[in-house]
């Protein structure tokens, strides 16, 4: 059961209406009527001021209305995406709510996923998982193998010096 307040109902209605062909036609008719009345008002400054003031006020209010609708849509999409991530056993739950990260952190993740995309392109199996967690485990294994080879190399260098 929904208990939307007056503003919520109005915003939903206004968003739907202003995005409709009826709203566009209405706005077009208003501009045409205004243009037709130009000769009657001798294209005066007041005549010009009417359309300028009207469009400025409407634009100002629409910015806030559009932003409210965008925020609501964005939140709904984020919730849907979070549900998909949470329900997929191979997906990393670390990605849930990443919209709260800084721009720098998001850029780092973006670079990481570009690398994961490169890994996926190299695999013959298109179903191979390259989640953040799996990649971290792979990176740890690679690092340990590198460290082992490096330690062996250092030991050989020290034996050669002795």
Give the helix tally: 5
| Gyration radius from CA atoms, angstroms | 30 Å
What percent of residues are in strands? Answer: under 5%
Overall structural domain count: 2
Structural class: mainly alpha
Q: Which regions are unreliable across 5 or more consecutive residues at pLDDT < 50?
A: none
Helix-strand pattern: HHHHH
Between the first and last Cα atoms, what is the distance in angstroms?
82 Å
| Secondary structure: number of strands | 0
The percent range for helix content is over 70%
Structure, briefly:
By secondary structure, this protein is mainly α.
Detailed description of the structure:
- With 162 residues, the chain is mainly alpha-helical.
- The protein folds into two domains: 1-87; 100-162, no CATH class.
- The protein has helices spanning 6-18, 21-36, 45-87, 103-122, 132-161.
- Helix 1 (6-18) packs across helix 3.
- The radius of gyration is 30 Å and the shape is elongated.
- The model has no long low-confidence stretch (mean pLDDT 85).
SSE map:
Blueprint: H1 6-18, H2 21-36, H3 45-87, H4 103-122, H5 132-161
Helix pairs in contact: 1-3
What are the salient characteristics of this protein?
5 helices, mainly alpha, 2 domains, 75% helix, 162 residues, 0% strand
